[in-house]
Amino acid sequence: MTATFDTDRMAAVIYGSEKLASRRREISAAVSRIPELHDSRPLPFMDRLEKVTEMTRKLAALNKHLPDIIDPNDYEEGLHLYHEVMGMEGHPLALHEVMFIPGLIGQGSDEQYEKWLGRARRREIIGCYAQTELGHGSNLRSLETTASYDPSTREFIIHTPQITALKWWPGALGKSSNYAIVVANLIIRDRNLGPHPFMVQLRDEETHRPLQGITVGDIGPKMAFNGGDNGFLGFDNYRIPLGNLLNRHARVEEDGIYVKPPHAKVGHSAMIRVRSHMATGQAWLLAHSLIIAVRYSAVRRQGFLEDKTREVKILDYQTQQYRLFPSIARAYAFIFCGFETIRLYDQLILDVNKHGNTSGMADLHALTSGLKSVVTYQTGEGIEQARMACGGHGYSMASYISEIYGVAIGGCTYEGENMVMLLQLARYLVKSVELIKNGKSKELGPMVAYLAEPDTQEKTPLELKDYVKLFQMMSKRQSWKATERYLKLVEGGVSRDVAWNKTAVELTRASRLHTRLYIMETFIRRVSSIEDMNLRMVLRDLVNVHVNYELLDCGIYLHDVSLLDSIKNQLYSSLHSLRPNALSLLDSFQFSDIQLRSVLGRRDGHVYENLFEWAKSSPLNVSDVLPSVDRYLRPMMEKAKL
Ligand SMILES: CCCCCCCC/C=C\CCCCCCCCCCC/C=C/C(=O)SCCNC(=O)CCNC(=O)[C@H](O)C(C)(C)COP(=O)(O)OP(=O)(O)OC[C@H]1O[C@@H](n2cnc3c(N)ncnc32)[C@H](O)[C@@H]1OP(=O)(O)O
Ligand SMILES: Cc1cc2nc3c(=O)[nH]c(=O)nc-3n(C[C@H](O)[C@H](O)[C@H](O)COP(=O)(O)OP(=O)(O)OC[C@H]3O[C@@H](n4cnc5c(N)ncnc54)[C@H](O)[C@@H]3O)c2cc1C
């Protein structure tokens, strides 16, 4: 089946501009010509140490070739180049670029930029972001690492009071980084002023050995990211100069006077940044798995439909389409709302750093808390469906889908565990409903204004605005229901914290609905703004899949469930309409074979030949008889014969 649109033009929509889309193609082509930048053999055949070594080798090679391939100041180009060469299994600079440099930019003063930023950008030093501890990750107020100010020497003494206070999990901490932004409780004259970010040198710049007072190492293998060295870190009364408190917002004077920041949570900017970028990052992971599954489904033939002389492509089964197409729609939807949150973050950081204006923080915190949770969860669901859609071959590492899954679902945990973050958004929703109840609807932000709308009759949706209306109604009802349940408990004398906990499941449901509504609205808005009518029509088919699927999936929140039959029919017909364009919608992401690392999902479609070649290259096939057979299996069989 041929597609009705040009994938290069769609790539420009996905990546935000024709220039970037075409630069991506050029960068992929450049990488394909430099063997030093390719995996030296398939990553699934490597053990952990080999993977870490391979990633480090490629990173050094990449550093050498980078200025010939991209503009070193262009982050988007850099990100693509990194994804292409380094893949997704982790590497020594993963946190340097993602949190260390942005953390320094967000929290450091101009003098601190002068001291560290240039060095970090030139990669004279490598850094990470060390916040989470063995005993606490979610509840930042219970972090135990301390940074006590000693005015006599104008130093902070960083200390790990007990085992639970060891930093645990930070990416690239274990073996690669020689610096870290360490989040520790600032203590001045025995007063705990809460977590603050400090620049801390961990290793000698010449020998790379840990400095005295520092204990650092790797935390061991993980579900994924095994090319990376997530680490542990402890401090034994380790001294750093006063100037190492990142002090753009909060300051300590030499005599120990504390100058507090303009907003209590302004120190969380590195987290907000990653959360703002997560929707696009997860969309790419989802699209990776889907292109593998859809390409394979367009090659794999199994069973018969009308034509009894030739087996059918499995992509023609309605169940296969139902399994895969709603996730294609979600991948696009996540990209579009991801662009929006990145833009909002960039604006916020400008407002905060240039004008000291923190008024946008609460809104962005609520939005990104919900979005990272919904997007990572749905991405995990979509990838797992993609795996199953490939049958047995999906289970093989040759598909690479299990690796993509492991990487993606890390996102359900890092940057705030999903339930915890849904509950952050719920605080915002509850406050919004309380405003309405107190007659202050005018104070509502635009994203929650619908919470004040009156209920109307549920009608079969015909136009996109009808879907949005229905979704708003479901979301509003759930936010009100959860708030009223919570308030009733409080009014009945239950403490606020206990009442909150007794309402928590309902609250997370409200947050999910609110976020799904936001994703749907952003998707519709973006598609309606596309000028190329041809592309807009295709994306309109995708939106149709999305709105019908999302509504059905949330059908339990409707009062009139008889609507669901008509929505089901519209979904089935939209799946059918999407079939001719499904593969090209994914080809438009323009992932190279090098980047995909999937034997099953290669562009050439020679699935069976490629699988056979891959299996033959397994280290187990180097000899016909393994030493373990000689040693254990043959003696066992021989013994049984006696
Ligand atoms: C050369 C070219 C350049 C190339 C460049 C490209 C190179 C690219 C290189 C590589 C790319 C490779 C990509 C690799 C990808 C790897 C990705 C992996 C990255 C993984 C990294 C992971 C890092 C981490 O996980 S860091 C640790 C994260 N930890 C958390 O998220 C902890 C979660 N907990 C919290 O955030 C908080 O504790 C909380 C939000 C749950 C509660 O906060 P708390 O301070 O306790 O607040 P509380 O008292 O409860 O609430 C008071 C009020 O404050 C409000 N609030 C809380 N936080 C915020 C906030 N941030 N902003 C605004 N308001 C906030 C809260 O809602 C309360 O408000 P209310 O009004 O009182 O209700
Ligand atoms: C791949 C990966 C990379 C990471 N990289 C970094 C890094 O670079 N730097 C860094 O500092 N950290 C990093 N982390 C750590 C990560 O940020 C934390 O693991 C994460 O914030 C979750 O915290 P936790 O482990 O304490 O989970 P916990 O909070 O212990 O969660 C366990 C369970 O308790 C529940 N729970 C906890 N609190 C509440 C609550 N208040 N209400 C309801 N339920 C609750 C959670 O929902 C969850 O079900 C990384 C983690 C991973 C997996």
Automatic annotation (TrEMBL):
It is found in: Peroxisome. It comes from the Eukaryota. FAD binds at T132, G171. GO terms for cellular component: peroxisome. One of its GO terms (molecular function) is acyl-CoA oxidase activity. Coiled coil: none annotated. Its main location: other. Belongs to the acyl-CoA oxidase family. The keyword Membrane does not apply. Residues 269-430 form the Acyl-CoA oxidase C-alpha1 domain. Gene3D superfamilies: Acyl-CoA dehydrogenase/oxidase, N-terminal domain, Butyryl-CoA Dehydrogenase, subunit A, domain 2, Butyryl-CoA Dehydrogenase, subunit A, domain 3. This is Acyl-coenzyme A oxidase. Residues 6-126 form the Acyl-coenzyme A oxidase N-terminal domain. Residues 464-638 form the Acyl-CoA oxidase C-terminal domain. GO terms for biological process: ascaroside biosynthetic process; fatty acid beta-oxidation using acyl-CoA oxidase; lipid homeostasis. The active site is at E415. InterPro entries: ACOX_C_alpha1 (IPR055060), Acyl-CoA_ox_N (IPR029320), Acyl-CoA_Oxase/DH_mid-dom_sf (IPR046373), Acyl-CoA_oxidase (IPR012258), Acyl-CoA_oxidase_C (IPR002655), AcylCo_DH-like_C (IPR036250), AcylCoA_DH/ox_N_sf (IPR037069), AcylCoA_DH/oxidase_NM_dom_sf (IPR009100). Keywords: ATP-binding, FAD, Fatty acid metabolism, Flavoprotein, Lipid metabolism, Nucleotide-binding, Oxidoreductase, Peroxisome. Its cofactor is FAD. Pfam families: ACOX, ACOX_C_alpha1, Acyl-CoA_ox_N.
